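job 3f2a | input accepted
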Amino acid sequence: MADFVFFYGTLMAGFDRRRRAGIDTKLTYRGRGSIRASLFDLGIYPAAIPAPEGVVWGEVYEMTEQDAVLAALDDIEGYRPDDPDKSLYARSAAEVTMPGGSVEQAWVYFYNAPLGKAPRIASGDYLEHTKVR
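job 3f2a | predicted structure (133 res):
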């Protein structure tokens, strides 16, 4: 499976990433990319939902020690591999389009709970959205 992970929210550069402290040395930045999804503002963090007509922008990282990185991210994102239906976010593989047009497979954490009245972020870019919010 993919050695890449895609961040579209508060784990990106530009946010307080203390939660990534234990895994930063196991991640190598590979560039900005996009996935097919819709992005929503939940207030303190975003939610991406797979959607073929949408585009969500984020950062792609290559993982060393993939098992350790994914275990830490599962904890951060509230993903329970033993009970995915009750997880806040669900980890799944998705195609990420890289800046040069190449496509990579990466792990993405998609929101797995009701959105309520969360507004859609039309730009698909959470970092830009937080600058104007």
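job 3f2a | The chain has one domain: 4-132.
job 3f2a | closed
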